[in-house]
Amino acid sequence: MPAERGIAEAAAVLRAGGLVAFPTETVYGLGANALDSRAAARIFAAKARPTFDPLITHLADAADLPALVGALPPAVAALAERFWPGPLTLLVDRPAVIPPIVTSGLDTMAVRVPDETSARALIRAAGVPVAAPSANRFGQLSPTRAEHVVRGLGAAVDVVLDGGPTRCGIESTIVDARGPYPVVLRLGALPVEDLVAALGPVTVRAGNSGQPVAPGTLAAHYAPRTPLRLLRDAGAPPADGIRRGLLAFRDRPADGYAAVQVLSPAGDLTEAAAQLFDALHRLDAAGVTEILAEPAPDEGIGRAINDRLGRAAATWSPAG
Ligand code: AMP
Ligand code: MG
Questions:
Q1: 110 alpha carbon to ligand 1 midpoint, in Å?
Q2: Which domain covers residue 294, as residue numbers?
Q3: Considering the entire predicted model, what is its pTM?
Q4: 41 is a domain residue
Q5: Mind listing the pLDDT tens digit for each residue in 165-184?
Q6: Is 106's C-beta closer than 6 angstroms to any atom of ligand 1?
Q7: 236 and 196, same structural domain?
């Protein structure tokens, strides 16, 4: 149902322990009452998500955070003040009212205020913090449209609010700013350059840490079903009869490909990020044997695009 009309009903579903998929500026989230361990458990079941993968808690307003967790470390408070509402997730100490299943037993909680009017209205109407990972099955492509959610999760969700395609199209940047040196745990829609401008130097530890702390950082994640190969200059495909899809960053010749998606004809990084998962969903549905993807320029949100493409490609094996 359209996001504006369904908010009161969806809020009631959240309060009753149900699951609501809703648009944010990044991707669609699969929300449950973060104070209710049984509701949170339903998120893991619906996504087939391993319970070691902690959820991000969403608030309607930055002012709600100190009320939930108490006084904030100065850099956390400064980042919340500067970038919320927005695609930045911050780590704070887990308050006792948040059950450990939400944070996968970690003593930290990831939290953000989404920059999407309907999402904030939903959370406010529910009157509880809302735990919400991306509304897709674990490891698969993130949803940037309501129909991606319906296709991927179907009857496992009680309500899907439809707010059209999401604006950023890529997940939030996750930062641990509790200590003296802020650490970027996941590259995302808020460019690292913006963090540096606000804070000074930051550490980027968003690679394949192998730690279960941020599974968005697992080597293989965000993957289409079709094998995806990342190539710096994909050129023309070999004439071997294999149907290939091309994911191009910008306009380029594409003869010989069975399906083509261009992220941004003019090569605009923001537009490319917004199109990324939708383009991958389309290529996945195009009946091709493999997808060749070209990286974006490695700057700004382009870093997050390349991070996602690298993880999508990690399931590809030369042996097929
Ligand atoms: P998703 O919303 O599906 O992209 O998943 C949320 C991401 O945030 C996952 O990769 C989590 O591991 C990460 N995350 C959530 N809580 C924490 C935490 N306390 N510390 C580090 N990363 C976290
Ligand atoms: Mg996810």
A1: 6
A2: 228-315
A3: 0.90
A4: yes
A5: 999 999 999 999 999 889 99
A6: yes
A7: no
Task: Find, among 226, 41, 236, the residue nearest to 133 by Cα.
Answer: 41
pLDDT of residue 221: 73
Supply the residue whose CA is at minimum distance from atom 23 of ligand 1. Answer: 214
Task: Tell whether 218 is covered by a domain.
Answer: no
Q: What is the pLDDT of residues 86-109, one digit of tens each?
A: 999 999 999 999 999 999 999 999
Ligand 1: residue of 19, 22, 30, 174 to mutate (most ligand atoms within 8 A of CB) is 174
Ligand 1 pocket mutation pick from 56, 88, 175 by most atoms within 8 angstroms of CB: 56
Residue 133 CA: nearest ligand 1 atom is: 2
Across 11-47, b (16+ Cβ under 10 Å) vs e yields: bebbbebbbbbbbbbbbbbbbbbbbbeebbbbbbebb
Do 197 and 232 belong together in one domain? no
Total domains, the chain: 2
Q: How many Å lie between the centroid of ligand 1 and the Cα of residue 278?
A: 22
Together in a domain, 126 and 175: yes
Give the number of the atom of ligand 1 that is nearest the alpha carbon of residue 49: 3
Is 223 among the domain residues?
Answer: no
Three-class SS state of 88 = strand
193 with 308, same domain: the answer is no
Residue 213 covered by a domain? no
User: Does 176 lie in the same domain as 34?
Assistant: yes
**Greatest CA separation found in the chain?**
63
